[in-house]
Design a protein that fits this description.
Elements lengths: L2 H13 L2 H13 L9 E5 L2 E4 H15 L8 H21 L6 H19 L2 H8 L3 H26 L6 H9 L8 E2 L2 E10 L4 H19 L4 H8 L11 E6 L5 H8 L10 E3 L2 E11 L2 E9 L5 H19 L5 H8 L3 H4 L15 E2 L5 H7 L11 E4 L5 E12 L2 E2 L2 H28 L5 E3 L15
Antiparallel strand pairs: 1-2, 1-13, 3-12, 4-9, 4-11, 5-8, 6-7, 7-8, 10-11
Helix pairs in contact: 1-16, 2-3, 3-4, 4-7, 5-6, 5-7, 8-16
């Protein structure tokens, strides 16, 4: 198996969801694909690879190819990647590598939030798959757990691998001239965000509403039913407010402190956090973890509060333009988005961790704003809605605009360094696979013996 394919396959498998994969299989059958009976095609100790696992990914690759011919050996390559992942799981079981429920729940909630954002709403997601959100999460749970274990094993094998500047230069020098990648236009964009603060009346009304709901629960009404009706947390409302298990320090301090002060079944007073106001019910304590459900209400922000945030940013913009403070320091000191603020306000490229973003990866709202901007320009305050639905304003700064070009060490060091690091990590994984492939029981369906699964000749 080539290093490039393993990297692509790993990223693909991590992004793939069980529900999406099954949808692709169904779609393929609907187009006349011959249906095959599911069954085990590879065993690695107690781990198995099903034919449906292989065919689901193959169907997804077919769709992405958009009619272009696929590599003739693609099924073998997919099977090799699946088998290597199962080897990671088998060795994780032997080495007692575990991932707790809180991590799985966090990742499930993150993925659900991403899917909901991409498709437009929770309702649209449920309609698309014709399943309630709870069922979608449960169907994903095993896959997400396995992926987190695999990632933990990979981190143990190659997590400490680093590259030096010399190794980066050597890596780049080995790339054939006709294979050096060509990058489209890329930009660096900074932002400073200020949230609109709710007014006192709105906060008082929110607290009063939660106290009313608390009284109804104490009088015998169902917490879950009221959460489904009133909670403004889209990730948990449909599940009666249930958040699942979390370890200490994994939730905001105010929430955790209130939950852990109670005995199971207890109902908290109204609790304020950065997300709004909560009514919390503790379900269970287990070691240093606990499970709970909540009802979240967010105070409304009036136009006056949005205007106040905009006025604050307008004054800050004047200071930046007058060079009395740098954009980076202003973002770090003032921005309510701590992630970009810690990076001097610059938005991060999720693929390589750098600050340069291809235009086609930009949020449309940002793209159409900076499209006519000159480098160095800072916008006036613009209305903005955060991912969790809060009213805010922000200013955007176009730091740089790089024209399309062939990759080079001066302009693209971060990307090249990331590729060099991935190659070195893959070599560490190759060495680990070579060392451990003989330490497990491996059985391959005769139909796929020609794939030489886990054989060094295919790497």
């Amino acid at each position: 198996m080539t290093h490039s394919f393993r990297t692509a396959a790993a990223a693909f498998l991590m992004a793939l969801t069980a529900v999406a994969a099954q949808a692709q299989v169904v779609a393929g059958l609907g187009r006349g694909t011959k249906q095959v009976v599911d069954g085990i095609i590879v065993k690695v100790d107690n781990q198995i690879v099903l034919r449906s696992d292989l065919e689901a990914i193959y169907a997804q690759q077919q769709q992405q190819a958009e009619g272009k011919p696929l590599p003739p050996n693609l099924r073998c390559e997919i099977l090799q990647s699946l088998t290597l992942n199962k080897l990671l799981l088998a060795k994780a079981e032997t080495d007692s590598v575990v991932v707790d429920d809180a991590q799985v729940n966090n990742e499930l909630n993150r993925r659900m939030s991403y899917f909901i954002q991409q498709i437009g709403s929770e309702k649209k997601l449920e309609e698309y798959y014709n399943k309630p959100l709870r069922q979608l999460k449960e169907e994903l749970r095993t896959q997400v757990h396995e992926q987190l274990v695999q990632q933990k094993m990979q981190d143990q094998i190659s997590g400490k691998v680093t590259v030096t500047p010399r190794e980066v230069r050597q890596f780049f020098s080995r790339i054939p001239k006709d294979s050096i990648p060509y990058y489209s236009t890329e930009v660096e964009v900074g932002q400073i965000i200020k949230l609109a603060k709710p007014d006192d009346k709105a906060e008082q009304a929110t607290v009063a509403k939660l106290n009313e709901l608390r009284a109804r629960i104490l009088a015998g009404e169902s917490f879950e039913a009221l959460a489904k009706e009133f909670s403004e947390d889209p990730g948990s409302a449909k599940e009666g407010g249930y958040l699942g298990f979390f370890k200490r320090r994994e939730l905001v301090p105010e929430y955790e402190a209130a939950a852990l002060r109670m005995e199971p079944g207890g109902l908290s007073p109204v609790v304020k956090s950065q997300f709004g106001y909560h009514l919390i019910q503790l379900i269970e304590k287990k070691g240093d973890s606990f499970s709970s459900r909540h009802i979240l209400l967010k105070p409304a922000t009036g136009n006056n509060n949005v205007s106040a945030a905009a006025a604050e940013l307008a004054k800050l913009r004047v200071r930046i333009l007058a060079d009395s403070i740098s954009f980076a320091k202003a973002a770090k000191d003032v921005s309510d988005d701590k992630q970009s603020g810690a990076n001097g306000g610059l938005l991060a490229n999720r693929r390589d961790g750098g600050s340069r973003l291809p235009l086609d990866q930009l949020d449309p709202a940002i793209f159409f704003t900076i499209d006519t901007m000159k480098v160095g320009h800072i916008t006036p305050p613009l209305p903005y809605r955060t991912e969790d639905g809060k009213d805010a304003v922000r200013i955007l700064w176009l730091k740089s605009n790089t024209a399309p070009h062939q990759a080079n060490l001066k302009d693209d060091y971060q990307k090249i360094a990331t590729a060099a690091l991935n190659e070195k990590k893959n070599k560490a994984l190759d060495a680990w696979f070579e060392k451990n492939r003989g330490s497990v029981y491996l059985e391959v369906d005769p139909e796929f013996t020609g794939c030489s699964v886990l054989s060094a000749e295919n790497k």
